[in-house]
Specification:
- The structure is a single chain.
- This protein is mainly α.
- The chain has one domain.
- It is about 90% helix and about 0% strand.
- The longest helix has about 55 residues.
- The termini are far apart.
- It is found in: Cytoplasm, Cytoskeleton.
- It comes from Rhamnusium bicolor.
Length: about 60
């Protein structure tokens, strides 16, 4: 009985460590995703500004 309890405790500890590891991975990926979203927004704005500038230089109007 005592060995079974020890095994259950070991399995529970391993489970909790695995869960914590996965939570850390999720958190890193969420941070990376947020950073990529900000970068995409900046690039989109830069592209729109550059496109408007090119249109102005070439004399095209939207």
């Amino acid at each position: 009985m005592e060995e079974s309890n020890k095994e259950i405790l070991m399995l529970r500890d391993k489970y909790e460590m695995d869960i914590n590891k996965l939570k850390a991975i999720i958190k890193r990926l969420e941070i990376k995703c947020g950073s990529l979203e900000v970068s995409l927004q900046q690039k989109t704005e830069e592209c729109a500004a550059l496109s408007a500038l090119c249109d102005e230089v070439t004399g095209k109007r939207m």
